[in-house]
Amino acid sequence: MNSLVQASQAAGSSVGLDVDRITINGGIPLRGRIEVKGAKNLVTKAMVASLLGENVSVLRNVPNISDVRVVRSLLEIHGVDVTEGENPNELRLDPTNVESAHMEEIDAHAGFSRIPILFCGPLLHRLGAAFIPDLGGCRIGDRPIDFHLDALRKFGAVVEKLPQGIRLSAPNGLHGTTVHLPYPSVGATEQVLLTAVRAKGTTELKGAAIEPEIMDLIAVLQKMGAIISYEPNRVILIEGVDKLEGYDHTAIGDRNEAASWASAALATDGDVFVGGAKQQDMMTFLNIFRKAGGGFDITDDGIRFYRKEELKPVVIETDVHPGFMTDWQQPLIVALTQATGESIVHETVYENRFGFTDALNTMGANIVVHPNGLSGTPRRVPRRNLEQAAVINGPTPLHGADIEVPDLRGGFSHLIAALTAEGKSTVSNVGIISRGYENFIVKLQQLGADFVLETK
Ligand SMILES: CC(=O)N[C@H]1[C@@H](OP(=O)(O)OP(=O)(O)OC[C@H]2O[C@@H](n3ccc(=O)[nH]c3=O)[C@H](O)[C@@H]2O)O[C@H](CO)[C@@H](O)[C@@H]1O
Ligand SMILES: C=C(OP(=O)(O)O)C(=O)O
Fold first, then answer.
1. Could you say which of 128, 143, 147, 254 is the most buried, measured as most Cβ atoms within 10 Å of its Cβ?
2. What is the DSSP letter of 253?
3. What is the pLDDT of residues 107-159, one digit of tens each?
């Protein structure tokens, strides 16, 4: 292990949080084995669910990422006692002494994550009131919370918007209702689940998101005593119960992290075994990966990813599950700069998710972003007003450059670009990447990357 990585680990920065810049000597294929742990997009929500239980929950396979730290801290502010479990990567969450929020401390968490919005239902059930600070998360569009607030109002919550956040109360308790989401939002689906499980009566949720992380959250809630049935056509029925217990759960693996390392293997012409990657959760990704010239071998404990043939262009439409996940497009686009011909990526989930391509163009890529999308090609996903498209023409050799991470997935794509490029690249603001990629610096080292770090 190189001494910089050792020093960084010794300083507790294996998470990568205090690393500011990384200078990568690119052009070396990534080879080796790494592991992904629990999905950021499930673990953080399962942690919130612990607030609903009468006693201790145990969550396993928890990754050491900064989003987990933020949620842990928010739970602690609310009186949940969060401790390390008996085994590595295990959290023990004890909600028996949940108290009212300490407003000032909550304010200090504004802008770090989107998870606070999911505290609404559990806090309303437990305390009859909630205060939610301004949300963070990736700046990839407006990211409104109207579906969340509309649903909460239907349950009987009173919502007051203040300059520093949102105050909620439930003077008459929360009651089961019918919610029809205008779009299968992941967060709003989770909001309804976390609120309906203890509301009085039955809730019918129409237009629900059905991502694997949502199915895993439903599994967590069922373990706690909830009654939730999944009906055809994105309908979920939730029968409210009076009381929920703690849970013992092992989080599903992070399919988004797995897809990112797979894309890194493809772009650098490497060969990476991703322990913890699951075929069932990544089928749509695997189809595109194969069409682009990638090869994969599936085993019980993970998936090996490599370049099988000369890279080929593909057309992708991002979509809700079971479509091509929007969080997969940024890392894969770097590999597509090395494919012979024209690839098109239609981004249909968020309105501003191609900002990261500017840096790739600086490095020699040929990517043209169409801010209002592209029509004229046959489509799987109905055209949305907010969509954009990126047209990638390759192959274009990439050369080293100084680039700055804009957001989580864009940041990982910058790392891949620097690893693919000939020569030295300096990637700054890499701390953001630790929001969703556990120990990415150690993993880069394990895969043979050549780099040096600068800490803050
Ligand atoms: C922590 C987490 O799990 N984040 C994931 C979650 O984000 P998140 O839950 O925030 O994403 P949503 O599924 O809610 O957002 C999808 C679309 O719905 C819109 N919308 C959403 C809520 C709302 O009240 N009003 C509204 O208009 C959004 O602006 C966006 O255009 O799902 C996204 C889509 O798979 C992923 O990219 C994120 O990684
Ligand atoms: C958009 C993402 O996350 P978040 O919703 O937490 O900002 C992501 O994981 O790519």
1. 254
2. B
3. 666 667 889 899 999 999 999 999 888 787 778 777 899 999 999 999 999 99
Can you point out the beta strands (E) in 143-286?
158-162, 165-169, 178-180, 202-206, 227-231, 235-239, 248-250, 271-275
Q: What is the DSSP string of 160-183?
A: EEETTEEEEE-TT--B--EEE-SS
Instruction: Give the integer Cα–Cα distance in Å for 419 and 24.
Output: 7
Q: Which of 189, 194, 326, 349 to mutate to test the pocket of ligand 1 (most atoms within 8 A of CB)?
A: 349
327 lines ligand 2 (CB under 6 A): yes
Catalytic residue among 19, 118, 123, 138: 138
Determine the distance separating the centroid of ligand 2 and the alpha carbon of 138, expressed in angstroms.
Answer: 6
Is 379 flagged in the annotation as binding? no
The predicted-structure confidence for 305-351, as pLDDT tens digits, reads as follows 999 999 999 999 999 999 999 999 999 999 999 999 999 999 999 99
Note the ligand closest to the C-alpha atom of 216.
Answer: 1
In ligand 1, the atom with minimum distance to the C-alpha of 146 is 24
Confirm whether 3-36+254-455 and 40-250 share one CATH topology: yes
Q: Say yes or no to pLDDT of 287 above 90.
A: yes
40 in a labelled binding site: yes
CA distance 184 to 309: 36
Q: pTM of the prediction?
A: 0.95
pLDDT of 7 over the 70 cut: no
Atom of ligand 2 at shortest range from CA of 187: 5
Q: Is 349 annotated as a binding residue?
A: yes
Can you tell me whether residue 67 is helix, strand or coil? helix
For ligand 1, the distance from its centroid to the CA atom of residue 143, given in whole angstroms, is: 7
CA distance 80 to 127: 13
Specify whether domain 40-250 bears CATH 3.40.50.720.
no
Contact 442, 434 (CB under 8 A): no
The CATH number for 3-36+254-455, chosen from 3.40.50.300, 3.30.70.2860, 3.30.470.10, 3.65.10.10, is 3.65.10.10
What gap in Å lies between CA 24 and CA 421, rounded to an integer? 9
Domain ranges of the chain: 3-36+254-455, 40-250
